[in-house]
Design brief:
The protein is of the alpha/beta class. The protein is built from nine helices and 13 strands. The strands form two sheets. Strands 5-4-1-8-9-10-11-12-13 form a nine-stranded mixed beta sheet, with helices on both faces. β4, α2 and β5 form a beta-alpha-beta unit. α1 crosses α7, α3 runs parallel beside α4 and α5 packs across α6. The radius of gyration is 18 Å and the shape is globular. It starts with 16 loop residues before the first strand and ends with a helix.
Length: 316
């Protein structure tokens, strides 16, 4: 019998989760409100943190006790070195892409509305080396029990997804509307699709994110039985569909400071449930709890909880 969320233990040993995807350096600026054009506003606070879709998901897994490894496009400038140190301090092993020499890290400036906790992201990928599909090798997958990819590092992510599927390893896709040409192939190759509501509605249409989830599930199941589709809806929670059925998981009520990285954290927490072979409703509930607790602090990572904090919320 699979363990319950409250009875789960960390999974020790070599990296059990492999991420192939985006890492970034985030500069977060808290402002009184989002400005209209041609005004001046004071910045209440500035914080530097690591970010990125797959990178933050792996930090989530590491804080929950799962050793993780990240292949990412990153350079050798000071921002890149800071990112590597930060990830390794969290327990995430970093494998830089082979084009790191002379390259830069992705960089984001994030404006956080102090009134609502919502955020607006400005980013640049100038000078960031691309990770190539042939950098995903069988040796990189050694010991891996779950793979996480995104639509930013889409070419290498597709290579990892296909290799993982061939090896029987679950593959989780974090789908954002990046416009990458590999997106249709990534949707086919991944076993678990967890897009944002924005992506799902743009890709499939629908009256809301739940309707979009149903449409995406029908599309994904065509010729690929066994797919899992989960669409995250922010303050409305998440909606998951699999062969088990359809499950609507409301968001947990917390005092929101900042929503940056909520979706990324959700992906990492969902991977934790997969590793423990929980049923979909339990995994959804756990992932929503972890994502909610993240919102307590500024930035995508500062509020990511440890396992005991999640269990306390689930029992409260």
């Amino acid at each position: 019998m699979a363990p319950s969320p409250s009875g789960s233990k960390p999974l020790p040993g070599p990296p059990q989760a492999l991420g192939v995807g985006c890492s970034a350096l985030d500069l977060l600026c808290v402002i009184p409100r989002y400005p209209e054009p041609d005004v001046k506003l004071p910045i209440r606070s500035i914080v530097r943190q690591g970010g990125g879709l797959v990178a933050t998901a792996l930090v989530t897994l590491a804080r929950l006790g799962v050793p993780s490894r990240l292949l990412t496009g990153i350079g050798d400038d000071e921002n890149s070195r800071w990112l590597v140190r930060d990830l390794e301090s969290e327990g995430v092993e970093v494998v830089p892409s082979r084009g790191a020499a002379g390259g830069r890290a992705r960089f984001s400036i994030i404006l956080v509305d102090a009134q609502t906790g919502s955020r607006t992201i400005f980013y640049t990928q100038e000078g960031v080396p691309e990770t190539h599909p042939d950098e995903v090798t069988p040796g990189l997958l050694a010991g891996t029990r779950v793979i996480l990819v995104d639509t930013v590092e889409s070419r290498a992510g597709l290579g990892a997804a296909r290799m993982g599927r061939a090896a029987g390893i679950p593959v989780i896709l974090d789908a954002e509307p990046t416009g990458a040409p590999e997106i249709p192939e990534l949707l086919e190759a991944a076993t678990v699709l967890i897009p944002s509501s924005r992506f799902a509605l743009e890709w499939c249409g629908g009256k809301d994110f739940r309707d979009a989830a149903r449409r995406l599930y029908r599309q994904a199941q065509a010729g690929n039985p066994g797919k899992v589709v989960v669409v995250t809806g922010g303050a409305e929670g998440a909606y998951g569909i699999s062969a088990e059925g359809e499950f609507d998981q409301p968001a947990f009520g917390v005092q929101v400071v900042d929503t940056t990285g909520c979706g990324d954290v959700f992906h990492g927490a969902f991977a934790y449930g997969l590793l423990h072979r929980w049923e979909l409703p339990a995994t959804l509930r756990f992932a929503c709890a972890v994502a909610a607790l993240k919102c307590r602090a500024l930035g995508g990572r500062a509020g990511i909880p440890r396992l005991r904090e999640v269990e306390e919320l689930l029992h409260s």
